[in-house]
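**Archive record**
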Amino acid sequence: MADDSTSTFKTGQTGLIVRIPEAEPFVGGWRERFDPSAQAGVPAHVTVLFPFLDESRIDALVHSALADVLGSHPTFDLRFERCGRFPEALYLVPDPDTPLRQLTEAITDRWPEAPPYEGRFTEILPHLTIAQGQEEAVIEEIEADLAGKLQFTSRISSVELIVHDGTKWQERASFALGINRS
């Protein structure tokens, strides 16, 4: 979720993610060792928006608005076949990433006070983090382990609202995407 290993999660902090359970056999062990969000209870995922609103602001109206915004987007498939890198981070590249970008844009259009990653980045690149804050040798080891193994698809039909309780991330709600009629 956070894109640097020095980040600490705050009680009441929220995020919106799409779970990618199909990734766990490939990256679960690596994430547990080298991704702070996995250590804090977040499953393999692609972030839609982090941070979202503080938990104290999430009421029935926000839930209803999230359901409306997310329900207007169709379900979609993501393919994962390769790794990508940020400085000191290794991730899986979702293809296509356009539906993920559209979800992020729709939510930030509705809640402009919650820009992705607090506005720290000019471009948001959807990704599934495997490891962060590691030396190059560790990143290369993980990448070599995954080479030739990656090729799976995940059906995205919902977005999860997760909340940090001070110790771990917990799912608070799931919002269904609309039905893809194409």
